[in-house]
Design brief:
Organism: Cellulomonas persica
Mean pLDDT: 96
Distance between the termini: 33 Å
InterPro entries: Peptidase_M15C, Zn_M74/Hedgehog-like
Low-confidence stretches: none
GO molecular function, one term: peptidase activity
Number of strands: 11
Number of domains: 1
Protein name: Peptidase M15C domain-containing protein
Radius of gyration: 15 Å
Strand order of the largest sheet: 1-2-3
Order of helices and strands: EHEEHEHEEEEHEEE
Structural class: alpha+beta
Number of helices: 4
């Protein structure tokens, strides 16, 4: 059975988020929401995952993950990026699905959509970030050819449609870089 909850960021969670949020971030903690959702792992077991997203998107995110749960779409891990010291590379290497992280865009200096709680990365190993010959995470090299496999997101599949119906766009449609794990509400 799918379960979910949406709560504000309380003091205990704010303390836990010390690595991913700090003064100067483009969104205040009051505008973020802690979302817990059921998900199926690659062995078919049900787990409770956690994300932080912008308050305006929380209900829609729950709806997306309810659809993915109903489809038995596998998710390896869904933990706050703070469990990895807010290190995006470490989170990706662990094949962790995450959302909020007050950080710059990959390879740039401007704020990432993750810094606003308006982006989410899903199964990064099965859905790597690709620019030229660079693939992140490294284990994602096995999935660059986009052959059908558990957890792999493909054009116009149920995952892409679920996010699109909630107003999110997929980075797998980008030319360069191609960010197969990335969904955002702005298309960036």
């Amino acid at each position: 059975m799918f379960r979910s909850s949406i709560t504000t960021i309380d003091d205990a969670l704010a303390a836990r988020m010390h690595a991913s949020w700090r003064r100067g971030c483009p969104v205040p903690l009051a505008d973020l929401r802690y979302v817990r959702v059921s998900h199926v792992d690659f062995d078919g077991a049900v787990h409770e995952g956690e994300l932080v997203v912008h308050e305006e998107l929380a209900e829609g995110v729950v709806g997306v993950f309810a659809r993915l749960f109903a489809q038995r779409y596998p998710i390896r891990s869904m933990r706050l990026v703070d469990d990895f010291g807010a290190d995006d590379t470490a989170s990706m290497d662990a094949d962790n699905t995450s959302a909020f992280n007050c950080r710059a865009i990959t390879g740039g200096t401007g704020w990432s959509e993750h810094a606003y709680g308006r982006a989410l990365d899903l199964n990064p190993v099965e859905n790597p970030y690709v620019i030229g010959s660079h693939v992140a995470p490294r284990a994602g090299r096995a999935f660059v050819d986009r052959s059908p496999a558990p957890g792999v997101i493909r054009p116009d599949d149920e995952v892409v449609r679920a996010f699109a119906d909630a107003g999110w766009r997929w980075g797998g449609y980008w030319d360069s870089p191609t960010d197969y794990q990335h969904f955002s509400t702005t298309g960036r």
